[in-house]
Write a structure and sequence with these properties.
With 350 residues, the protein is α/β, with parallel strands linked by helices. The chain has three domains: 149 residues, Rossmann fold; 45 residues, no CATH class; 135 residues, Rossmann fold (3-Layer(aba) Sandwich), CATH 3.40.50. The protein is 44% helix and 15% strand. Helix 5 links the parallel strand 3 and strand 4. The longest helix has 22 residues.
Length: 350
C-alpha cells in the first residue's frame, strides 16, 4: 500500500494548568456519554458539578505539578508509534496525530491538522484497550462529528478495542512479573490487584462491554505470566456520585488485604499512560489507605506508556486495520463481545 496514512490516537485529555481544571471538568460532564440527560439540563448540571468539584480537582493536580502529564505521555507514544510504522520497511508514509476528548488538542483541532496533512487513509486508534461507550465510543462519535464539520473525507479505518492484544498483554505481564519479584516478601505471596477505572453498574447492565473486556485483559495477563499460584483480583477505582459502580471497589480490596496482612501489587489495567488516577489516586491516596488498614507492603506497577512491546502491538493493530476487509476492526479482527453487549462498536453492523 502506497500513499500517506494518518493515525489518530484517542485519549481522555487532561488540564494543562490549574485554570483549565474547571473547563476540563465541564467538558467531561457535558458529554452525553457520561451524563445521559438532554439539553439544557445536562449543560446546567455540568456547570454545577464542575463548579463544585473544581477546588478538589485543582488540589489533586497541584500534587502532580499543576497539570496533567497525559498529553506528554501520549506524545511520546505517538512518536514511538510513528517511528515504528515508518521504519517497518513499507512504501506507506505514516504520521501520528493526537485527539483528546475533553481538553486540547480536541477533535476539531486535530481534524484541521489531519486535513492539512492530506492523507489517503486515516486509522483511528484509541489508547483505551477496553471498549466503553463512555471512552472509545464517545471519542469516535466526536471525531466523526468534527470530521463532518471540517470537511475531512478520507477513507477511515477504526480499531475499536484490543483487550487481549499480545503487545498490550505481554507488556503488562512483564511489568507485573518484575514488580512481584521485587517486592522482597518471603512467605507471603503478594496479592496482585488489577485496578480499572470504574463505571456505573447501570451502564454495564444497559449493554456496555467494558467490564467483560477488563476481565478478558486480566485473564490474558495472568495466563501470560503463567503463575498458577498467583494471588490476583480485579477491582474498580475512581467512583464518584451516588450511583452504584462496578464492584469490588479498590478501597474494599485494600481493606481485605489489610485484614489478611497480605502485601499488594497495584496494576492499572485500563490505563496506558500516567495521569491523576495513577499518580494521585493509586500512588498517594490508596497508598495512604493501605498503610492505615495494615497492608504490609504496597507496590504500584507503572502503566505501559511507550514500552516498545506495547508500541509494536499498536503498530500491528494499525497494519491489521489497513489490511482488513471492513472499516472497523477489533484486536482480533471482528467482533469479540458476546451478543448481549449491545453497546459494542460492532452492534449496529451485525
Amino acid at each position: 500500500m502506497n500513499g500517506k496514512t494518518a493515525v489518530v490516537l484517542f485519549n481522555l485529555g487532561g488540564p494543562d494548568s490549574l485554570d483549565a481544571v474547571k473547563p476540563f471538568l465541564f467538558n467531561l460532564f457535558n458529554d452525553p456519554a457520561i451524563i445521559k440527560m438532554s439539553q439544557p439540563m445536562r449543560w446546567l448540571l455540568a456547570k454545577v458539578i464542575s463548579n463544585r468539584r473544581a477546588p478538589v480537582a485543582q488540589e489533586i493536580y497541584r500534587q502532580i505539578g499543576g497539570s496533567s502529564p497525559l498529553l506528554a505521555n501520549t506524545k511520546e507514544q505517538a512518536l514511538g508509534l510513528e517511528r515504528m510504522l515508518n521504519n517497518a520497511g513499507g512504501a506507506e508514509n505514516f504520521k501520528c496525530f493526537i485527539a483528546m476528548r475533553y481538553w486540547h488538542p480536541m477533535a476539531d483541532e486535530t481534524v484541521a491538522s489531519v486535513k492539512e496533512y492530506g492523507p489517503d487513509r486515516i486509522v483511528l486508534l484509541p489508547l483505551y484497550p477496553q471498549y466503553s461507550g463512555t471512552t472509545t465510543g464517545s471519542s469516535l462519535g466526536e471525531w466523526h462529528r468534527a470530521a463532518a464539520r471540517g470537511g475531512l473525507a478520507a477513507e477511515t479505518r477504526t480499531v475499536c478495542c484490543y483487550p487481549r492484544d499480545s503487545g498490550f498483554v505481554k507488556s503488562v505481564a512483564a511489568l507485573v512479573t518484575k514488580a512481584v519479584a521485587e517486592t522482597g516478601f518471603t512467605g507471603k505471596v503478594p496479592r496482585v490487584l488489577f485496578s480499572a477505572h470504574g463505571l456505573p453498574k447501570e451502564f454495564v447492565e444497559a449493554g456496555d462491554p467494558y467490564q467483560w473486556q477488563v476481565e478478558q485483559s486480566v485473564k490474558s495477563v495472568v495466563a501470560e505470566i503463567g503463575a498458577d499460584s498467583l494471588d490476583w483480583q480485579i477491582c474498580f477505582q475512581s467512583r464518584v456520585g451516588r450511583l452504584e459502580w462496578l464492584r469490588p471497589y479498590t478501597e474494599d480490596a485494600l481493606l481485605q488485604a489489610g485484614k489478611e496482612k497480605v502485601p499488594v501489587v497495584m496494576v492499572p489495567i485500563a490505563f496506558t499512560s500516567e495521569h491523576s488516577e495513577t499518580l494521585v489516586e493509586l500512588d498517594i491516596e490508596y497508598r495512604e489507605l493501605a498503610e492505615k488498614c495494615g497492608v504490609p507492603g504496597y507496590f504500584r506497577v507503572n502503566t505501559v506508556c511507550a514500552d516498545s512491546i506495547f508500541i509494536n502491538g499498536l503498530g500491528e493493530l494499525v497494519g491489521r486495520a489497513l489490511k482488513g476487509p471492513g472499516c472497523l476492526v477489533s484486536g482480533k479482527g471482528g467482533r469479540i463481545c458476546p451478543d448481549n453487549f449491545g453497546v459494542c462498536a460492532f452492534a449496529d453492523q451485525v
